[in-house]
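Bumping with the actual sequence this time:
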Amino acid sequence: MSAIDTAFHQLALTRPLSARIDPLARVHDSVVLPEDIVVQSGAHLPAGLVLEQGCRIGPNVAFVEGAPIVVRRDVQIGANATLLPGITLSAKSVVRPGSVVGRSVPPGAIVEGNPAAIVGYVDTLAGPVSQLHALAATQGPRVEALAVRGVSLHHFPVIPDLRGNLTVGEFERQIPFPPLRYFVVYGVPSREVRGEHAHHACHQFLICLRGSCSVVADDGRQRVEVQLDAPQRGLYLPPMTWGIQYRYSADAMLMVFASHHYDAADYIREYDQFIALIGQQAEASA
């Protein structure tokens, strides 16, 4: 047996009792195996790999040697996936079988393909069915409360005309705040993800003026995904809501109204920090 093989196979003597490591998996002896981890047959875990609790690593998964790869808690990696050096798989993310992952994966994201792209988020409720091409708001605007605290989908009237259709909404009447700022997101490559942050104080209202994109809203307890694909539909995100926008169509043009001027200090950009702040708010109000 070579020195390399010895380094991989001596690990059997030091594995945590609760870890389930298939004897045909190749695990370097420098890799620290946490409790409650599963590594299936043929998986290759090289030196420098960092693993947290609850990970599930499928058959023939290959972590490519090089810059360290970090796998956070409760990550699931499907069979025959390849993970390239220097990336982080954030907590509760999912890598589907056969994917080649060359970029870090955010918390709870589901990725697949070669190169891997985000195709969904775990534990996400489906939002209302798309109203694409619907022109029937003759009874006036309508507000639809969603499962995530404070988040609502707004349906605005459409006035059809041979000269072109018109849709309209009024701030502080149908939209629950007066805007101080707007920005427009467009020209986003289809595999890219935007947002991935929350605000301490800023309210936001999102309308996809052209094309379509999907928005994930997360209050730290529930997560819902809504497709915005018509200018008569808008999504309200109150403060302390984690927002993600992805699945942009090639022609998508997303307009966002904000209640505050830009302030870098108002942004919460780390999901773990967001969850901690939600917990502190819950304790304070108990």
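The tokens above came from a reply further down the thread. Residues 271-285 form the longest helix (15 residues).
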